[in-house]
Design goal:
The complex is a heterodimer of chains A (about 325) and B (about 220). In chain A, β8 and β9 form a beta hairpin. Chain A has 2 domains: about 160 residues, Immunoglobulin-like (Sandwich), CATH 2.60.40; about 100 residues, Immunoglobulin-like. Chain A has 4 helices and 21 strands. The interface between A and B is large, with 55 and 63 residues.
């Protein structure tokens, strides 16, 4: 019973790829992985993934805020998890160890892809070289010429047909620039060709009355939320942890065409963050102009500004615009 | 500021504590919204099954429930090479300890591996090795067709079901409140469910979101 996915339950892999071929490759990959490290494979994600800390600049002025990123490099067909509602796995976590005078903000997650496994199992994942962003601020009173070591312990899970847990340190050396800028926010535009800029360009646009495109409408019903976007040729919704539960994210939250009908369910006991039922997550739309993503916080009273909206808008605004 | 806690799983723990008080109404409402093709959850009838374990012995849920000594049945979806299963069987002995704790109280603990034939994590040999390595005292049933797993709607390993004497699922979800592959959760939902159920009390959390690896179903 999967009208929107066709043979979805028979497939494994990213839904936007050549899935059947991928499936065969995956099966081989899994067998090889299992054979190559039988005893302690579960403790060694390094075979198929690595993680590092990167920054948009190596020098930072006291008082300035720059973007840094947790950059993963994944072997083909392996994935890590988005920080939203997934059936399995968990999203990467970092426990920061920061020098005095340095602060970081919340993690900012680029739009993921849906990943369906046999048994109607749905996850939202990243493949390739995903970068999870955060803002790093150096206090104005940090002395120029100070060497700042940004450190953290990262925990992640990398899976294809089998899963390997990863855990390890990351670090990054920054230096405070000789003097405080008169205009500390002045930073170069982010190139969409570089890892941080590419990730920034995939941050979902916080949807508000101001940013909502004409042709996009949301309707709240007691048991169903409908999303229509006239410009879209396909739509998907990726629910976040704060969202109301859906009866079937697998069946309802992806469709060809311009409309989604999301049936609302009661929450799990451990995920009901409040009595208020709101649809919170990422709306992914394919339009003639390419893929677009919106961050949505929608309830019976309409749209509300999503969490971290100002931060995300600020980062997005820094991505270099290219004439199309 | 501790962003690990803000971004990580501690949030779930706090949310879990907050929502415990409202679980009764949630459990009632949820019966109406879940559909049979999505498997079963708390409040619904546990599908009957009969499966062989890794030693070739047949186990029927119906027969187990009919025994006078049986007060409840725990089903644990299992895959010996899943890091989350390893967390609870090798790095810690969560499952073994809980099964032992309630064995004398008439709780029958059963593991089920629904991985398909030919997968590196399935088959009697691989699973018997795990049973031996981890001193598992309860049977691991082989469901290589995935039929039982799909009837239950089990998607992850470990995914837990507590079944009452009358065949009703009274708890469905995670083993505990920490969804990582490394740390144990502060709350063990299955322990809480069994304690309450055997005392004739309302189970505080009847439905949580299980975490783990995908069950390796056949395509």
């Amino acid at each position: 019973m999967q009208p929107s996915l066709g043979t979805g339950s028979q497939l494994q892999g990213r839904e936007d790829g050549s899935v059947k071929l991928l499936k065969r490759v995956l099966a081989c990959g899994a067998t090889l992985a299992a054979l190559s490290a039988p005893a302690h494979a579960q403790n060694n994600a390094d075979q198929v993934s690595s993680v590092s800390l990167i920054a948009e600049a190596s020098e930072v002025h006291p008082g300035q805020t720059i973007l840094i990123g947790l950059r993963f490099e994944l072997e083909d067909h392996w994935h890590i998890y988005w920080d939203g509602r997934n059936d399995t796995g968990f999203a990467p976590m970092i426990d920061w160890d920061l020098p005095d005078g340095v602060r970081v903000g919340p993690l900012l997650w680029p739009a993921p892809s849906r990943y369906v496994s046999p048994g109607n199992i749905l996850d939202h994942v990243y493949e390739g070289t995903p970068t999870i962003l955060t803002m790093l601020t150096v206090d104005p009173d940090v002395a120029p010429g100070t060497s700042l070591e940004i450190k953290g312990q990262v925990e992640w899970l990398v899976c294809n047909d089998v899963c390997l847990p990863g855990f390890g340190p990351v670090s990054l050396e920054l230096t405070t620039a000789p003097k405080v800028l008169s205009s500390p926010e002045q930073l170069e535009p982010l190139s969409p060709d570089a890892p941080i800029g590419r990730s920034a360009s995939k941050l979902p646009v916080p949807l508000t009355a101001q940013t909502k495109p004409a042709g996009l409408s949301l309707r709240w019903g007691e048991d169903i939320v409908t999303v229509e976007y006239q410009d879209a040729t396909s739509l998907a919704f990726y629910p976040m942890l704060a969202s109301v539960s859906l009866v079937s994210t697998l069946e309802d939250a992806k469709a060809e065409g311009s409309k989604l009908a999301l049936r609302l369910a009661a929450p799990e006991d451990d995920l009901s963050s409040s009595d208020e039922r709101r649809l919170v997550g990422v709306l992914a739309a394919t339009t003639d102009e390419g893929a677009v993503w919106y961050l949505i916080d929608f309830g019976s009273d309409g749209l509300r500004q999503p969490a971290d909206a100002e931060l995300i808008s600020h980062v997005r605004a820094r991505v270099e615009r290219r004439p199309s | 500021m501790n962003w690990f806690k803000r971004n990580g799983l501690a949030v779930l723990g706090a949310v879990a504590a907050m929502s415990a008080a409202t679980s009764l109404s949630v459990a009632t409402a949820m019966q109406a919204t879940n559909q049979s093709q999505l498997g079963v959850t708390a409040g619904e009838k546990a599908p009957a099954f009969s499966l062989k374990d890794t030693k070739g012995k047949e186990h029927s849920l119906e027969t187990i429930l009919a025994k006078d000594s049986t007060k409840a049945v725990v089903l644990e979806w299992f895959n010996p090479d899943c890091p989350f299963v390893v967390k609870h069987h090798k790095n810690n002995t969560t499952m073994k300890d809980l099964a032992e704790k309630y064995a004398d109280e008439g709780v029958v603990w059963i593991a089920i591996n629904s991985g398909h034939e030919g997968h590196s994590t399935t088959g009697t040999e691989r699973n018997n090795t795990a049973i031996k390595d981890w001193n598992i005292a309860y049977p691991v049933l082989m469901d290589m067709s995935g039929e039982v797993g799909r009837q239950y709607g089990a998607k992850r390993t470990p995914e837990m079901y507590v079944i009452a004497k009358d065949g009703t699922v009274v708890y469905h979800g995670a083993i505990d409140s920490d969804r990582s592959a490394r740390n144990l959760g502060e709350t063990n939902y299955v322990d809480d469910a069994l304690r309450a159920h055997l005392a004739g009390e309302t189970i505080p959390m009847q439905r949580t979101q299980a975490y783990g690896c995908t069950v390796k179903y056949r395509n």
